[in-house]
UniProtKB/TrEMBL annotation:
Signal peptide: none annotated. GO terms for biological process: amino acid metabolic process; carboxylic acid biosynthetic process. Pfam families: ACT_7 (PF13840). Residues 76-137 form the CASTOR ACT domain. This is CASTOR ACT domain-containing protein. It comes from the Eukaryota.
């Protein structure tokens, strides 16, 4: 499924830092230092991207790896983030489906997140090259960046 538009807002970026995905049980405490870093918003060494989602079944903590994160989070920093440049119009439909369908066909696992401005798809580090190749073949455009080990990495 190619992108629903060739608008530059739908171009893709590979973010340079690894990402972590941590699952906690309901009632399990989020590490205090992680909560503190969440409120800092990337200042003073905290990661630049955090997402916390709570359901009755779990708490998912997702974020950009950073220097002083807890070891248990560091061990889960096995993902790379592909970001849709954005911001996207809310009238667009099928963007996430269009982005993830070719990855599904290529057997690339994803962890997807959305914000008000855009969508993010995390893929396992070792499958980034497959993900980039698959998406480019499908018609997705990666924004100008620097080449790193054969992959496009965003300049931030």
């Amino acid at each position: 499924m190619p992108p629903p538009s060739q608008n530059p807002a739908l171009h893709l970026l590979v973010l340079p830092e690894p990402f972590f995905v941590v699952k906690l049980q309901p009632g399990q405490e989020i590490a205090p230092c992680v909560l503190q870093d969440l409120t800092r918003g990337g200042e003073k060494g905290g990661g630049g991207f955090f997402s916390v989602t709570r359901t009755s079944e779990e708490v998912s903590v997702v974020g950009e790896a950073y220097r002083w994160m807890p070891k248990s989070y560091e061990e889960q920093s096995t993902w790379v983030c592909v970001k849709i440049r954005g911001p996207m119009e809310h009238s667009l439909t099928g963007v996430m489906a269009s982005l993830t369908a070719p990855l599904k066909a290529a057997k690339v696992p994803v962890f997807a997140l959305s914000t008000w401005n855009t969508d993010y798809v995390l893929v396992p580090k070792e499958m980034l090259a497959d993900a980039v190749t698959t998406l480019e073949r499908d018609g997705w455009v990666f924004a100008q960046g620097i080449k790193g080990k054969g992959n496009r990495v965003a300049r931030l």
